[in-house]
Design a protein that fits this description.
The protein is an alpha+beta fold. The protein has a single domain, classed as Aminopeptidase (3-Layer(aba) Sandwich). It has five helices and eight strands; from the N terminus they run E-E-H-H-H-E-E-E-H-E-H-E-E. The chain has an eight-stranded mixed sheet, sandwiched between helices. Strand 1 and strand 2 form a beta hairpin. Helix 1 packs across helix 3. It starts with a strand and ends in a 7-residue tail after the last strand.
Amino acid sequence: MNTVFETENIKFIELTELLVQDYLEMINDINVARLLGRTKTVTEEGELNWIHKNLENKAPVFSMIEKSSGKFIGNIELMDVHDEEAELGITITASMQDKGYGTESVPAIVDYGMKKLNLKRIFLRVFPDNLRAIHVYEKCGFREYGRTEEDILMEIMITDDNKL
């Protein structure tokens, strides 16, 4: 497994077929699926296609691995990268939630996006009832800039004054 970057407790690796069962367990968990807005079960074939597509496109999608145990934590990605901006997506498997991995991984992917992809803005959408995630995003410097019926819209802008 190829480590792309790391933080104190997390290795960020390229997507891999070796973790397909972990990916499926994560995204098909009823609570995780709800937060992703998913209503259908993802199949192994569908997940393998997703892995291959992202690898072929060299998409900035990474699996997070706990350094101390080697356990799968979740996936984090920068989607729709264009015009110096991208959308952040993160999913943490149920058994690894509430351990500080969101707070540790979000600044790491923001830093990666700014330094490696030259992004100036990263935005995200979060359900209003996902208070835990909203707290993490705010703690990491994201600020609300709008709302829809379904989502709170948050962003972090990088200027010369606030570079990471």
